[in-house]
């Protein structure tokens, strides 16, 4: 009896500090899950087309290849230091987002970096993160913040946002898997939007309904070895998850909420977390 090969965790590198953070996070995740790691550098030859049609001279392509190989060597050495079992590097002629989306078709997880606000590089990194989060064929992690790399960060919980939609089962499956391999507690959050004028009995009824929803969604999941805390709050989901990200090592949510529609590939909560979370964000792809 043969076993199916373990799909790799894929990450991209572009020489920035943010992409090297993504490599370190991806390498540690590969070590925890016993998965190989694939590191991609996108050459983006299309950006060199003169007038949009004339191909660049081969010398310019060679410069990009040399730079890419240098970045990949440095990233592979960084990954190996994290204990990853196997590292493969690859140059891709396409643009960064498309190269990573293509690679996600044969990956178990896609990991990208995201820089802060107010910088052109941050805007570019944000566009790649949003694109792969919306279009990747596998789950995506966007590595944000610095807290995940601090001493004691491994003791922080994994936080999962559950709204009761059809994606809740997949979100909880991913959240339990991450909490289990990290030996971390799991906080499952159901947040309903604020209703300032709601009467106290109505708030109590909403809270009861939220607890019943979480109990139902958690039923069938193997909780052995994972300390689970259920949290029901009257708050906007994006605000609640952003606040909890400050004391979490990972936030897990779906790419589209219960109120989403087919054209909304990455919901408002996901977009808010990509730009404001204080820790890495794990986006569980839609069905």
From TrEMBL:
One of its GO terms (molecular function) is ATP binding. Keywords: ATP-binding, Nucleotide-binding. The keyword Lipoprotein does not apply. It comes from the Bacteria. InterPro entries: Rossmann-like_a/b/a_fold, Universal_stress_UspA, UspA. Residues 8-144, 156-285 form the UspA domain. PANTHER family: STRESS RESPONSE PROTEIN NHAX, UNIVERSAL STRESS PROTEIN RV2623. Belongs to the universal stress protein A family. This is Universal stress protein. It comes from Amycolatopsis mongoliensis.
């Amino acid at each position: 009896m043969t076993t199916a090969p373990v799909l790799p965790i894929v990450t991209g590198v572009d020489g920035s500090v943010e992409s090297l953070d993504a490599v370190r996070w991806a390498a540690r995740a590969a070590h925890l899950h016993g998965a190989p790691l694939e590191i991609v550098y996108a050459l983006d030859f299309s950006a060199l087309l003169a007038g949009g049609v004339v191909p660049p001279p081969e010398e310019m392509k060679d410069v990009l290849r040399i730079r890419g190989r240098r970045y990949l060597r440095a990233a592979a050495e960084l990954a190996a230091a994290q204990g990853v079992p196997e590292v493969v590097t690859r140059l891709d002629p396409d643009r960064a987002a498309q190269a990573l989306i293509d690679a996600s078709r044969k990956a178990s997880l896609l990991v990208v970096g995201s820089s802060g606000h107010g910088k052109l590089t941050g805007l570019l990194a944000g566009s790649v993160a949003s694109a792969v989060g919306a279009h990747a064929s596998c789950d995506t992690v966007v590595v944000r913040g610095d807290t995940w790399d601090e001493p004691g960060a491994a003791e922080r919980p994994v936080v999962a946002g559950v709204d009761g939609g059809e994606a809740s089962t997949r979100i909880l499956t991913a959240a339990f898997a991450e909490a289990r391999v990290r030996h971390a507690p799991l906080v499952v959050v159901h947040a309903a939007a604020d209703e300032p004028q709601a009467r106290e009995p109505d708030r109590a009824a909403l809270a009861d309904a939220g607890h019943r929803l979480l109990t139902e969604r958690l039923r069938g999941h193997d909780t052995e070895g994972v300390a689970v805390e259920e949290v029901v709050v009257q708050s906007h989901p994006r605000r609640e998850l952003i606040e909890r990200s400050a004391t979490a090592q990972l936030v897990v949510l779906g790419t589209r909420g219960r109120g989403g529609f087919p054209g909304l590939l990455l919901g408002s909560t996901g977009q808010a977390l990509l730009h404001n979370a204080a820790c890495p964000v794990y986006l569980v792809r839609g069905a």
